[in-house]
Amino acid sequence: MPIINKILVIGAGIAGPAVCYWLRRFGFSPILVERCANLRKGGHAVDIRGVAIDLAKSMGIYKKICNMRTQVELGRYVDAEGNILHEEKGERFGFREGDDIEILRGDLVQILIDAMGDVPCHFNQWVESIKQRDNDVEVQFKDGRTELYDLVIGADGLHSTTRRMVFDKDEYKLTNLGAYFSAFSIPNYLNLNHTDVQFEANQKLISMASDKNPKIAITGFCFRAQNVLNNLRDENEQRRFLRDTFQDFGWETSKILELMSDSNDFYFDSFTQVKMKSWTKGRVALVGDAGYCASPFPGQGSNQALVGAYIFAGELKQAEGNYHRAFNRYNELLQPFVEANQKFGVLVNESFLVRDEVSKEVAEERSNKIMQEIKIVSNMISLPNYE
């Protein structure tokens, strides 16, 4: 079996830098490429829970995450006129307890990039073609360069180009859960202070939260829709879709949509799950949302990415470079964890976006149910010790 060493990792989200960290730590030579010109700052919040906390501590980044965590102290449900329906402490509002941490996605990515050490990281670089051969993978980049790698890892998210290039259409299924999500920042004109406010009714939800920066508020929109966007990646169409859907919704919606025009960090996507029987093919593997996105609603994507990255790199080390054996073990060990998190994603999706206006009773019952389930799915895998 030829020595496996030079590994291309595509995508500088959460999974990409995480798998680079573990590959480097276990003696391999990863190279990271990212299509964007630089790291995307801010973004929506993600959670670190269960076994992912153990991994963060093992990586030496847990304290850094704690130092940069969000600090929402109060969660509040309001009605269309802004009257308070129900309040909860911030951690419970976000379904967190104990050592669980919430952090902005961009902050976590920066921490992971810093943790990679001397792993080469090339921005504004993307792959045009991937050709697998008996002893290597030939990769052509957008600038015309052609490089050879022992393995290629696609960590390029829900809309993975790597997945489309390497896997046949019948080898993966994208399951739309019938809802959409958008987030962007606006001025904190309500003067919220470490507070997250939500208005939910008619299968729509809008939130507004201000955390460490008192001048900025992060807004979020979630909604079910019968109509499907013709082009999910067209930002102009996304913004139009959002305006049409939330027209005359109530609370602060009109003002927020007005301020959206000046926002420069607009994000929009569907609640979609990626389902695959195998995340590996030949010398190519998928890690994180590219292979097993559970949808952004439960906030479990970062946990799956961290766990998947660790198991992938660890099994490659354990197999002493026998990637066939490592890939089989990666698929085998991770499958139950992914299946549980995807079932949980469906449960959360069905629990939110109620038909009527959310009530104190609905909010409390939902919170209890989700917190009970999230504890189970976040800890239902025993991580091997690869050291």
UniProtKB/TrEMBL annotation:
Keywords: FAD, Flavoprotein, Nucleotide-binding
Record bears the keyword Hydrolase: no
The keyword DNA damage belongs to this UniProt entry's keyword annotation: no
Binding site residues for FAD: 14-15, 40, 44, 105, 289
Name of the protein in its database record: Tetracycline destructase Tet(51)
Organism listed in the record: uncultured bacterium
